[in-house]
């Protein structure tokens, strides 16, 4: 059969449709990546994917008249495209190849292309040519496989999209194996247009790489964007409900946590403690705000350490802190005793400054502001009464935990 007659056969028509489809998808992706720039590596991936797909297509549609062009241009595009894909995934993962590494990859690619030309133009050596191209591609695929497996472990949120990209690359390689073997074994180049199984599998590989590859890399970008939006939402949520200096809940966050405690059920009442640092204004004025901030952070760490599951600790502003104790009475008494020993010099392991606190009973449905005022009044009443005593050797009247619990319960 005259090969020229194949251009008017149904197989040639199917091949033309395949050419147009793959070329259109590649051009579309190139246009989208330039029109809508995204993460690093986005444009490089589009160029690399187009190079690999079009190179495979040119290399597969090989006739005696187009053999030289098919071998050189097809393999050249595949080699260049694979190098760009590796660089694109590296940049997308946050890697920045050094100038030395880029020069090394560039020289390796240039040397491989020169050797490819010599093994095609100067002396037709299909086996050596196949080995040369295969080694270059295996090195790139190995590096890409290592990178993707590392990113799957490092970024679990993107693991699914990375696996999809990896699966498509492996599937494309498997689909082209029969066609590669057919060419290596010396089958007639005119069979390139025949609807044989190797040719059909290769056509499927083109579509998989062009369409599936575009979808897979787009999915990787969208998963990363979604994860960044989720992280940003979490950060905004933290900024809206957390005090930036101490990390405790702010006023809004404390109210939200208190409402959640009321909605959970359980004990009908809790104990609300209100704290402030003794002489905080004088400390700031005389010793500086940096030391004042250190004291605020230390008190916050103390409250966070004392709090148990279900308790709520927060900073309302300035040196005013709240601690909602929601456990059983024995646990609350132990927590208050621990706070007493840590907040007053001479009572165990003081923080280096003293802080006063008062307690109020807080029942479900009570006004938080009312409970805060009640605890505040109790705190200032204790300050006015000089309790607990600030002496290195505390008097027997100094322990305050049982008294605080009894007054809060009354």
Would you give an account of this structure?
One of its GO terms (molecular function) is diguanylate cyclase activity. It comes from Deinococcus gobiensis (strain DSM 21396 / JCM 16679 / CGMCC 1.7299 / I-0). InterPro entries: Diguanylate_Cyclase, GGDEF_dom, Nucleotide_cyclase, Rev_trsase/Diguanyl_cyclase. Keywords: Membrane, Transmembrane, Transmembrane helix. This is Response regulator receiver modulated diguanylate cyclase. Helix content is about 70%, strand content about 5%. It has about 400 residues and is α+β, with helices and mostly antiparallel strands. The chain has two domains: about 240 residues, Rhopdopsin 7-helix transmembrane proteins; about 160 residues, 2-Layer Sandwich (Alpha-Beta Plaits). The protein has a four-stranded antiparallel β-sheet with strand order 2-3-1-4, with helices on both faces. α2 packs antiparallel against α3 and α6 runs antiparallel to α7. The N terminus and C terminus are likely disordered.
Written as H for each helix and E for each strand, in order along the chain, the element string is HHHHHHHHEHHEEHEHH
Which structural class do the helices and strands define? alpha+beta
Q: Give the mean pLDDT.
A: 81
Radius of gyration: 36 Å
Helix content range of the residues, please?
A: 55-70%
Largest sheet: 4 strands, antiparallel
User: Helix segment count?
Assistant: 13
- Let me know the number of strands: 4
Distance between the termini: 106 Å
Q: What topology, given as strand order, has the largest sheet? A: 2-3-1-4
The general outline is elongated
Strand content: 5-15%
**CATH architecture grouping of the largest domain:** Up-down Bundle
Q: At the first level of CATH, what is the class of the largest domain?
A: Mainly Alpha
| CATH topology heading of the largest domain | Rhopdopsin 7-helix transmembrane proteins
